[in-house]
What does this fold into?
Amino acid sequence: MPSARLKTIEVDAEIAEKLEQMASEQNRPPRDLFDEALGTYLDRRELIRELDERMEEFDRTGLHVTGDEAHEWLTKLARGERPPLPTAHK
It folds into this structure.
């Protein structure tokens, strides 16, 4: 992925020390570890936002699938089948 210069980011000395230590242990540049950590954090925040939106939709509509319905669908997927998604209901 191409890089982009945002601005200098100042981090706590303890975090910087840990970053340098881990980078040295993994024989990787600290910037690579920082990019990886920041990317992971942002991915998680996006997931949390998406889950919050889905929960709001559930609260509003009450539509859901049961655990048994989800399990049956996942079992079929694991067997290599291509079942349709379970239909949400109240």
Observations:
- Helices lie at 13-26, 30-61, 67-78.
- Residues 4 and 19 are 21 Å apart (CA to CA).
